[in-house]
Amino acid sequence: MTTTRKPPAPFGRTLCAMITPFTAVGALDLDGARSLAARLVAEGCDGLVLNGTTGESPTTTDTEKAELIAAVRDAVGAGVSLVAGAGSADTRHTVELTLAAEKAGADGVLLVTPYYSRPPQEAVEAHFRQVADASGLPVMLYDIPGRTGTRIEPETMIRLAEHPRIVAVKDCSYDFLGTQKVLAHTELAYYAGCDEHVLALYAVGAAGCVSTVANAVPGHVAAILDAFDAGDTARARELQLRATPLIEAMMDAGLPGTVTAKALLARLGLPAGPVRAPLLSAGPEAADGLLTRYEALVAA
């Protein structure tokens, strides 16, 4: 059965995959997180994704993850959706992180496909169902096979859509046909997880985006979707293409998005701090290049 109705946006429309600010010595900077979250919301984001890859989840402790959720909830209030990354390579640990996120005040959890062990599709499905059964939080699946080594195949996604708490997908699959197939056959709310796909995926029925570039330009990302919603597709296209140089510099220049986002935010005088090892902070030349692209975008 094919559906033509656009699914609702359960976590808002313009979400930022927020970096996790650290102090100069690498400790969790909760004051910085509160300040950054408030700015992102004030400038156009109606939801935030915390403790994701951009938030350096591989190198933050379970305690730090919970503290970050609680601090950001305090900063932005109850009207902003907070989705907490809770995925891991271990189903039991993923359940623990999900329950901790629920207790800390998250509105939903982002669950990445278990990585490294490369489970078959039957095991992937069982993993997500077990975690979704363990708490009352709605779930956003995170399909990013380039990092995990395992795809959530469209057929698996369609079966998972039957679970009442599996409601959304952050899509970094780079399989536009597969994505359209799931959109056509389920009520799952898709969110573009790759900034270059924000407009393209929205145009075929996505609920919104989870943007790394929004750490620096939340208002611009929101404006792309605003223009499309207003029926001004030419303006939406213009805004998407205008952002392309910054998207390329942040997401396709040989450095992880966490590194480039923190480097640019630091240049803008915003909370960021260093990245944690094994990542290395961007050098001055890369940071200068990011700032140049940013300034060109906001001046246009």
From TrEMBL:
The keyword Repeat does not apply. Transmembrane segments: none annotated. It comes from the Bacteria. It catalyses: L-aspartate 4-semialdehyde + pyruvate = (2S,4S)-4-hydroxy-2,3,4,5-tetrahydrodipicolinate + H2O + H(+). Pfam families: DHDPS. It is an enzyme of class 4 (lyase). InterPro entries: Aldolase_TIM, DapA, DapA-like, Schiff_base-form_aldolases_AS, Schiff_base-form_aldolases_CS. The record marks T53, Y116 as: Part of a proton relay during catalysis. Its EC number is 4.3.3.7. SMART domains: DHDPS. CDD domains: DHDPS (cd00950). Pyruvate binds at T54, V210. Its main location: cytoplasm. GO terms for molecular function: 4-hydroxy-tetrahydrodipicolinate synthase activity. Keywords: Amino-acid biosynthesis, Cytoplasm, Diaminopimelate biosynthesis, Lyase, Lysine biosynthesis, Schiff base. The active site is at Y142, K170. Catalyzes the condensation of (S)-aspartate-beta-semialdehyde [(S)-ASA] and pyruvate to 4-hydroxy-tetrahydrodipicolinate (HTPA). Belongs to the DapA family. Homotetramer; dimer of dimers. This is 4-hydroxy-tetrahydrodipicolinate synthase. It comes from Streptomyces camelliae. The gene is dapA.
